[in-house]
Amino acid sequence: QVQLVESGGGEVQAGGSLTLSCAASGSIFRINSMGWYRRAAGKQRELVAIITSADSTNYGDPVKGRFTISRDNGKNTVRLQMNSLKPEDTAVYYCKADGWYGSNWKNYWGQGTQVTVSS
């Protein structure tokens, strides 16, 4: 099937930067979009950023102007550059990909990586 491998989580101080990456495996998976969602303790999951195969991007309001999503490596890897981090950014970040797996439309999720921003 398809696997999403996430890396780059950790702990930083407020105002610092962190970069997350997510690589999708699966030779027959034709990606429509890849991106990141996050879930903070006691809160619902929310959109962080997403990028499509046509390189259009969407960002959740709390991260606009601070985070940048990009893709590379044959469009199978996405990178999330997080700058000016705030304690409110503390959450588990989940990579998400959707697209065609054969003739079926699929959504895939990574295991999640913890991002902690200390004040």
Fill in the keyword field for this structure.
119 residues, mainly beta, 7-stranded mixed beta sheet, 4-stranded antiparallel beta sheet, 11 strands
Would you give an account of this structure?
With 119 residues, the protein is mostly beta strands. Helix content is 0%, strand content 61%. It is built from no helices and eleven strands. The strands form two sheets. Strands 2, 4, 5, 6, 9, 10 and 11 form a seven-stranded mixed sheet that branches. Strands 1-3-8-7 form a four-stranded antiparallel sheet, with no helix packed on it. Strand 5 and strand 6 form a beta hairpin. The chain is elongated, with a radius of gyration of 14 Å.
Q: Could you give a quick summary of the protein structure above?
A:
The chain is mainly β and 119 residues long.
